[in-house]
Structures are given as structure tokens and as C-alpha cells.
Amino acid sequence: GGAVRVFMFAHASGKTPAEILAMFQSGKGWGQIVKELKLDIGPGLGGIMGNGQGKGHAKVHDKND
């Protein structure tokens, strides 16, 4: 999931992926990076990464659910 964010944030901010990765590796969280870069990235990424659950874990349902 981090690679998707790196490229998405780089594209949206005009920075290089290496610059975004360096921000993350310096200890900043993804939310902090979004705020610092003043990015307007909608909830779409959370839905993609978290299967709409917002936790980054896709729920897998058994066919008996």
C-alpha cells in the first residue's frame, strides 16, 4: 500500500517519489505528509487500500457468511 501512496502523493504534489519516500522514512505518517503538502486526495485511496473499511485490511468472507 505504501508504494501506491508514494506515487500518488508524488504525482499530486509535483515532488519525486524519492522525496515522498524520504518524508515517510523520516518518521512522518501518511496523514502528516498529506497535510504538509496540502494535498487534496479524496477518500478514494482509503477505500482502495482498506476495501472501504478504512483499516487497510480487506475483509474476506466465507461463502457460508
Defining traits:
65 residues; mainly alpha; 55% helix; globular
Q: Can you walk me through this structure?
A:
The chain is mainly alpha-helical. The chain contains 4 helices and no strands. It is globular.
What's the helical proportion of residues? 55-70%
Number of strands: 0
Mean pLDDT, rounded to whole units?
76
Envelope shape: globular
Short account of what is shown:
By secondary structure, the protein is an all-alpha fold. Helices cover 55% and strands 0% of the residues.
List the helices and strands and how they pair.
Blueprint (H helix, E strand, L loop, with lengths): L1 H12 L3 H9 L4 H8 L6 H7 L15
